[in-house]
Amino acid sequence: MKHSLRAAVIAAIAAAGSAAAQAPPSPFAEREQKALAEPFVGITTDGQPVPGLFPLAATGVSTAPVIDATRAWLDALTPAQRAAASFAVDDIEWRKWMNVHRYARQGVSFRDMDARQRELAFALLRAGLSARGFSTARDIMRLNARLGELATRPEEYGEDLYWLTVMGEPSAEQPWGWQLDGHHLIVNYFVLKDQVVMTPTFMGSEPVSATAGPHEGVIVLQAEQDQGLAFVNALDPARRAKAILDPVKTSNNNLAEGFKDNVVVPHQGLGAMEMSAEERARFMALIMLYVGTIGGEHAQVKMREVMAHLDETRFAWIGGTDADAVFYYRIHSPVILIEFDHQSPANIPTPPDQRKPTRAHIHTVMRTPNGNDYGKDLLRQHYEAHRDDPAHGHRQ
After folding, report:
1. Which residues lie closer than 8 Å to 124 by C-beta, 6 or more apart?
2. 272-291 pLDDT per residue, tens
3. What CA–CA distance (Å, rounded) separates 338 from 227?
4. Given this model, what pLDDT does residue 36 score?
5. Are residues 264 and 44 in contact, defined by beta-carbon separation less than 8 angstroms?
6. Residue 284 CB-density burial (10 A; 0-12 exposed, 13-18 middle, 19+ buried)
7. Which of 201, 181, 177 has the alpha carbon at shortest distance from 189?
8. What is the pLDDT of residue 392?
9. Furthest C-alpha separation in the chain
10. What is the mean predicted confidence (pLDDT) over 350-370?
11. What's the pLDDT score for residue 288?
């Protein structure tokens, strides 16, 4: 559907009252405009992406489940909802995500779906994510509702304030994908035949656990925290010293969050090639904790890609290493960037003298450096392979 028609439909939806599901006016409009004005390059170590890292190649892993689930959700939408949720596969909408709550989002929110549509939307997420990945995503949504209770602003923080969009048409042959966008939870899922790229993915929460309310007992991101701490403490002392960039953490450290598609991240920390065999095994297990959020055998495909570049992978740490320490760590290779960060309070009222990083607020990010976030390098190659091919609609 043409963008002008979609815009008109969206305006009609807003006039009809769907604005209730929209977040407050975004204070990030200027930042968004500046970031999106930059041509996409991708995360690099020096501003120049390394070529040839992501070839078009069959994986042998079916994408049929996520195709079927996405089609089922789209078919359950009203014409107006479907128009609001549908974008071209190369639309800049991919890059319009933000982990804060006051951001103007596109698509159809869970708040604006009926019971059947929500059921199918969750089925879509289950098809793309692993069981653990889906469970974490759902618990982040539940904790966002808990945050609304703690901040006494349920209209701004809610379990259903998450938006879905679909880029392109679900297809076994043509490129397409979907995006989930909301506070502390963003998943970008690109598909080309049987290849999948599930980055950028952002998972975080404040609070990270619910000690009261309807979601009491829900807790997230503890394995990422505890396994990271266990890994740094299991390193040989000399290698641990090389991994630790700063033993004191005083601020937020994540580098690759919203509107940082082109951030330059230098090589820092301890190289995997310097680790012992046991340390490398622990390192791979830590990486798999994040890659394992991808559904089915697509996670194994990604891990093989990571292992092919393991000798070029580095681990960096900021903060303490005591049992109750707050910290940041980064895993950085040519084909994956992972960040874990204990953050300062942001949404829960906190005295100024207590606004320092805490275990109650966690951000994690998983990226594909060197130009393949959102599957952009795969899409570029697909376009080039079918240049001037009317059957593919890629005439240039």
Report:
1. 66, 69, 70, 72, 73, 164, 178
2. 999 999 999 999 999 999 99
3. 14
4. 95
5. yes
6. middle
7. 177
8. 63
9. 64
10. 93
11. 98
State both tokens at 149: 């209770």
Torsion of CA 297, 299, 300, 306, to 10 degrees: 160
What is the arithmetic mean of pLDDT over 99-116? 94
Q: What are phi and psi of 355, to 5 degrees?
A: -85, 75
Whether cis (ω within 30° of 0) applies to the bond prior to 214 is no
Among candidates 269, 307, 265, 301, which has minimal Cα distance to 285? 307
364/313 Cα distance (integer angstroms): 18
Confidence of residue 390 (pLDDT cuts 50, 70, 90): low
- With contact defined as beta carbons under 8 Å apart, do 286 and 231 qualify? yes
Beta-carbon contacts of 18 under 8 Å, excluding residues fewer than 6 positions away, are 112
Q: Say which amino acid occupies 377.
A: D
Residue with the two structure tokens 């305006």? 11
pLDDT at residue 196 is higher than 50: yes
Instruction: Specify the pLDDT at position 391.
Output: 63
CB 337, CB 367: distance < 8 Å: yes
pTM confidence score: 0.92
- Tens of pLDDT, residue by residue over 37-54, are 999 999 999 999 999 999
Encoding tokens for residue 145? 């509702």
**Eight-state DSSP code of residue 129:** B
Neighbours of 212 (CB within 10 A): 10
Rounded Cα gap, residues 112 and 268, in angstroms: 45
Measure CA of the first residue to CA of the last residue in the chain; give whole Å: 20
> Distance between CA atoms of 347 and 338, rounded to whole angstroms?
24
DSSP 258: T
pLDDT digits (tens, 9 = 90+) for 300-314: 999 999 999 999 999
What CA–CA distance (Å, rounded) separates 260 from 267? 17
Q: Are 234 and 155 in contact (CB under 8 A)?
A: no
Please give the Cα distance from 8 to 15 (Å, whole number). Answer: 11
Give the integer Cα–Cα distance in Å for 224 and 285: 11
